[in-house]
Specification:
alpha+beta, three-stranded mixed beta sheet, 8 helices
């Protein structure tokens, strides 16, 4: 329903807009949940399943968004739905697709299976945009060094703004993030997109006066409650450094701070940040090989 402009979905949608109608139903559901103003609050989860078939040799995949097309076995679909509705917090308020066939030992509810599911669902938070798993040749003792490297890289990119179509502000610490059971330690930075001076980011005279007063008083925290709120609504990327329970290191970049009413994802700036991050990690890997 999110790929109606691409073949073959455009052909399926040609007569009567069947996929467009389904997408409208999904959007009504999402908006109803987000705009609910009474207790109890509600969550939604949209699961895109492939055709149910007995394809036991198919590799299992679960990815954020509407991106997979392959078939899925009934037992696998059952376990995915159970995990999404009962056990995995990152499935809340998300859309994901899955396909393939689970290994037999992952159809149980044992500790190994729950670790697998926890790791599988983590990319839904944000969602995750990029990941780099460092192999065993990189000692986990490099965790602190890698964390500092990412912090300095993020600060430098925010300062120079090289290649970015939207300016960013780097927050040198991140609030606790949902993580898999396989994560032993975690640190990171937030790179928040700054508002422009037009459109819905326009500041009233009262807000400008408040910001000016705080600035003159030497307040070192964010300029005003209004500006903090506006920055949060512009979106951004959280870059996480993680040490796993299997004694390995990894980097994850996930989308953050987009408001519910954000109509446009800043994909060009996101791609630029991710490309800069990949380049920076290539240098770090070479220096620490």
């Amino acid at each position: 329903t999110e790929r109606t402009e691409k073949f073959p979905y455009s052909m399926q949608n040609l007569m009567g807009g069947k996929l467009d109608q389904r997408r409208q139903v999904e959007e009504v559901l999402i908006n109803t949940v987000k705009q609910r103003a009474v207790e109890p609050p509600l969550d939604y989860t949209l699961i895109k399943l492939g055709e149910i078939k007995d394809a036991k040799d198919a590799t299992f995949e679960l990815r954020p968004g509407d991106v997979l097309d392959a078939t899925i076995t009934a037992a696998t679909a059952e376990q995915v739905i159970i995990q999404a509705t009962a056990f995995q917090p990152t499935a809340r308020n998300s859309t994901f697709s899955c396909a393939g066939c689970l290994p037999a030992d992952m159809l149980s509810t044992g500790d190994d299976a729950q670790s697998f599911w926890s790791e599988t669902f983590v990319p839904l938070e944000g969602p995750e945009l990029w990941r780099l798993d460092l192999d065993g040749s990189y000692n986990v003792e490099l965790y602190d060094q890698l964390s500092e490297y990412i912090r300095e890289w993020a600060l430098l990119l925010a300062q120079t703004g090289k290649g970015l179509t939207t300016p960013i502000q780097t927050i040198e610490s991140v609030p606790p993030q949902r993580s898999a059971q396989t994560v032993a330690q975690q640190s990171g930075v937030q790179m928040l997109f700054l508002p422009t001076a037009t459109g819905r980011n326009y500041m009233s005279k009262d807000e400008e006066r408040e910001r000016e007063t705080l600035s003159k008083s030497g307040t070192s925290t964010a300029k005003s409650a209004a500006s903090r709120r506006r920055i949060a609504k512009e979106g951004g990327i959280t870059v996480l450094v993680e040490k796993t329970t299997s004694d390995s290191l990894r980097i994850r970049a996930r989308r953050c701070n987009y408001a519910d009413d954000t109509g446009t994802i800043k994909e060009i700036s996101e791609e630029t940040i991710l490309k800069r991050l990949q380049d920076a990690m290539a240098v770090w890997q070479q220096d620490n090989a």
